[in-house]
Amino acid sequence: MARFWITLSLASVARASFDSNLNYNSPSRRHPSLGIDVPRVVKRGLDYDSCDHDQLNFTHGVASGDPYPNSVILWTRISPQKANDNSNVTVEGNVPLYSHETEQYIKASPNPICVDYQVATDKDFRHVADKGTAYTTSDIDYTIKIEASHLEPFTTYYYQFSVCGSIKKSPVGRTKTSPDRDDDVTNIGFAVFSCSNYPNGYFNAYGNVARKDKVDYIIHLGDYIYESGKGTMGKDARATNPAGEIFTLYDYRTRIALYRTDPDLQLSHQKFAWIPVWDDHEVANNAYRDGSSRMNNTEDSFIKAGGVSVEQRKMNAVRAYFEWMPIRQVSMDDNLRIWRAFSMGKLVDLIMLDTRHYDRSITTLDFNNEYISDIKDDAGRTLMGSHQENWFLGQLSKSKDRGAVWRLVGNQIIFSRMDNSAWLKGGLNADQWDGYTASRNRTLSHLYTNQIPNTIFLAGDSHANWVSDLVWLDTKPYDPVTGSGAIGVEFAGTAVSSSGYGRNYTHANTVSRRLVEDNRELQWAEGWFRGYVELQVGREEVVAKFLGCPTVATRNPYEISLANFTVVAGENRLKRSVAGGKVETGALQRGEVRGTNLTVDTETGQWKVRGFEQMYIQY
Ligand SMILES: *[C@@H]1O[C@H](CO)[C@@H](O)[C@H](O)[C@H]1NC(C)=O
Ligand SMILES: *[C@@H]1O[C@H](CO)[C@@H](O)[C@H](O)[C@H]1NC(C)=O
Ligand SMILES: *[C@@H]1O[C@H](CO)[C@@H](O)[C@H](O)[C@H]1NC(C)=O
Ligand SMILES: *[C@@H]1O[C@H](CO)[C@@H](O)[C@H](O)[C@H]1NC(C)=O
Ligand SMILES: *[C@@H]1O[C@H](CO)[C@@H](O)[C@H](O)[C@H]1NC(C)=O
Ligand SMILES: *[C@@H]1O[C@H](CO)[C@@H](O)[C@H](O)[C@H]1NC(C)=O
Ligand SMILES: *[C@@H]1O[C@H](CO)[C@@H](O)[C@H](O)[C@H]1NC(C)=O
């Protein structure tokens, strides 16, 4: 009888700690049949005391994200193996629990693995604000995702995980809660990233921001990973793992895990709370609701993908993403929902969108580009689906009503018109908002009709810098000289490491020049440099600094200031003269391309950065 009671109480303790790992609740603890059957996992292994602690490692550092005023998400992975769990979900909704466990692994470390965590205001953990226990198993690839609570707003915290009953500890992470809704916060700094392609180059941009340490939070607009394979492991320094294109759950886990071995990315996750959304490549190129350019909804594609359908692939990608990213699932019954919002004091509302996977109508898939350009103005086309779009427009209004000074829209693709004839045949890139004019018109109509001020769109995806006044051409008057008539601003940033445009430096600037000539609301264009945007949001103004990495062919800490822009609160346009009338490179609508630190040898076309050494940032 006594024994019976012990077993029962152990089971309930274990159950509670399983619940604290949010990855077991995905998609919903109310619907175990749709996700992981936690009672079954609990039953399978109460023997966590017997696991061999020496064989367990924190394999991929720590991470934090989705800051709220009193809580933040903390992440780590504690595993008896570096490799990812290789179970494959083969039938939708049928998650095999046992099939993947090898005899050897069971001997080395029986499920589950137990960790304690603590969160404190100091690095030595003398002032602990929250602590707890969580379990993980192979079912969720040994990931741990917990919500630290009882925290104070806009406060820096340190956190650490440790294996229960062992001295083995994770690295110490740093994070920061968001300001309370009504706090009179005066400044919030963000670094905005997109398009980090591991085999294409080094993640110097991530590292530079972490070392400079001038922002509060990281925004990532997607293409955090890429699905295609490149290079040979053991031969090429940045070869992908898996080697080829990814399809299965194991594949997506392994690919994200590879990216997370990058020291600059790890450093960024360790130092900052991240607020990411996905773009297309987290699943596959030019993805939309029902497919991508990398896969058709056909038997042929199914066979080529080794028996993975379009829907299955998307489910695999999304599941691995939620396992590995330090973010909240804000609607437990809607496991494709990543769109969410953050109220940061009276200063800013940050609205993160999913213009890709949630409910997007068909996009350009290479073979259908002509068809898409024919239907781009179809009123029935949608980028977000009505559920998300109504929420988005509602958020903009609510934000104005509550008196938040700024609205930042974290969106994947470029909102403004891009007459692209300078480098794209036909001139139309219908994979951007240009291919969904009805959605764009509804957004603009909402902004103008409700006179919603101080909206700043952010975009990634394009691997180039585009800075525009937010305008409704042919409907609302707009003066490109003064900016009057505009309703906001768009800052679209270059990639961390994906390639931009231009065959050489001179050619890139020629293309940029053509682009600003063809698009009068486009005030600055630049396509040569990899980098990021640093956004300092204040009550009186927002300053956007565009930084460029001279090269991503090596791991290095150099960067150059490309251009700075100011938006004055209440003006709803870029401050004149735009960029202070001078930029370092690219093409400025009315102003000077100064090239203080960048010089071009006109004979060879080679470009050089003057004072390269002075711009060294200590590792
Ligand atoms: C974990 O770390 C220990 C000590 O650093 C090492 O001996 C062991 O091989 C590692 N285990 C795995 C699975 O990586
Ligand atoms: C899952 O898929 C991967 C890649 O196709 C394969 O290597 C692995 O053996 C599969 N695992 C199981 C348990 O079937
Ligand atoms: C999808 O179908 C189109 C049209 O038949 C074809 O051109 C394209 O290659 C297919 N894509 C894939 C990834 O199989
Ligand atoms: C969107 O508005 C523009 C005018 O700015 C108009 O030319 C276009 O037809 C509209 N598109 C749709 C789908 O309403
Ligand atoms: C040019 O380089 C100098 C020193 O290296 C630096 O102080 C200055 O800010 C740089 N200017 C730009 C526009 O990057
Ligand atoms: C941007 O502003 C910084 C100061 O914050 C300055 O050092 C840099 O030179 C400016 N860059 C350009 C291109 O004007
Ligand atoms: C740069 O690229 C352009 C366009 O391909 C080409 O015409 C030009 O010769 C190149 N310049 C040099 C110096 O290679």
TrEMBL record:
Residues 60-177 form the Phospholipase D N-terminal domain. Keywords: Signal. Residues 1-16 form the signal peptide. The keyword Signal applies. InterPro entries: Metallo-depent_PP-like (IPR029052), PhoD-like_MPP (IPR018946), PhoD-like_sf (IPR038607), PhoD_N (IPR032093), Phospholipid_Metab_Enz (IPR052900). Residues 190-546 form the PhoD-like phosphatase metallophosphatase domain. CDD domains: MPP_PhoD. The keyword Membrane does not apply. This is Alkaline phosphatase-like protein. The lineage of its organism: Eukaryota, Fungi, Dikarya, Ascomycota, Pezizomycotina.
